[in-house]
Specification:
Structural class: alpha+beta
Number of helices: 4
Number of strands: 16
Strand content: 35-45%
Distance between the termini: 72 Å
Helix content: 10-25%
Shape: elongated
Length: 276
């Protein structure tokens, strides 16, 4: 009799283990709109000789361009992630229009600083992250097949490499910008990622738009928040702003002119009326 009890117990444990293993969350891509806030410090004499420098906070929006996050298959209690696309647009009183884009990983030559696929020095990499300490809801209908709906909680982070197009300049970071949040759903709608470290901002000085080891340090990103939203929280003004910045990668390689002050005032008035 004891043998039967031991055998039955072992079988039950084995079946239970297989069910837990089979419930690991499957790989997939999440897309969502988002709002963000970035606080920039621009050093003295960057915008113009004698300029004292200043701190500016810019509220931004995905403007109908949803971010895409790739999730790997869950391993133990961790899900590896990567930001595949990210575009944000906004306007500030001091700097005018601004756009943030994800920067693709660049492997660069040690000597020239120019892209070199065979090089050994990595100036910037892809924007990778992870969700750690993943907890699942075993009562969720999708638990047995590893559906993302069974995700219950986890500690999420991203190490981000980006560009900021602002005031006729294209700025970028060499050291990863880390954003973290505790999230309770996939995708993480409504949960705010917070900046964990300020990062230096460098100016792309070459007309070809390539990064260089000699690019000047011109400021810092002091603060940032990023919140995925359930649907595009944008009005016509944000769509128009996004269209205006769609050609920024071409425009930035030409001689730049400052964002017209009249445009800034007009947009701010429209935002104030609509309470965007």
């Amino acid at each position: 009799m004891r043998r039967w009890i031991v055998a039955f117990t072992a079988l039950a444990l084995l079946v239970g283990l297989q069910q837990v293993q089979g419930a690991l969350i499957v790989a997939g891509d999440d897309q969502f709109s988002s709002v963000a806030r970035h606080t920039l410090l621009i050093y003295a004499n960057v915008l113009a000789p004698g300029d004292p420098g200043f701190v500016e906070t810019i509220d931004m929006n995905s403007a109908g361009n949803p971010a895409t996050i790739h999730r790997d298959q869950q391993t133990a209690t961790t899900i590896a992630t990567e930001i595949v696309s990210l575009d944000l647009f906004g306007v500030s009183l001091g700097l005018g229009g601004a756009a943030v884009h994800l920067r693709a990983g660049d492997r660069v030559d040690d000597w020239t600083g120019h892209p070199d696929p065979a090089g050994t020095a990595v100036q910037m990499g892809p924007s990778l992250g992870a969700i750690e300490n993943v907890q699942q809801n075993e009562s969720d209908p999708g638990f047995d097949i590893g559906d993302p709906s069974s995700f219950q909680s986890g500690d999420s982070f991203f190490d981000i490499f980006f560009e900021i197009d602002v005031a006729g300049m294209t700025l970028y970071n060499k050291d990863a910008l880390r954003m973290e949040a505790t999230i309770y759903s996939l995708p993480p709608i409504g949960f705010t990622y917070l900046l964990q470290n300020s990062v230096d901002l460098y100016l792309i000085a070459s007309e070809d738009g390539l990064i260089d080891d000699f690019d000047p340090l011109v400021g810092q990103l002091l603060g940032a928040t990023h919140t995925p939203t359930p649907e595009p929280s944008t009005l016509l003004i944000w769509s128009l702003l996004g269209m205006g910045w769609a050609s920024v990668r071409v425009w930035r390689r030409r001689r730049r002119t400052p964002w017209p002050e009249q445009n800034t005032r007009t947009i701010l008035k429209m935002i104030d009326r609509g309470r965007v």
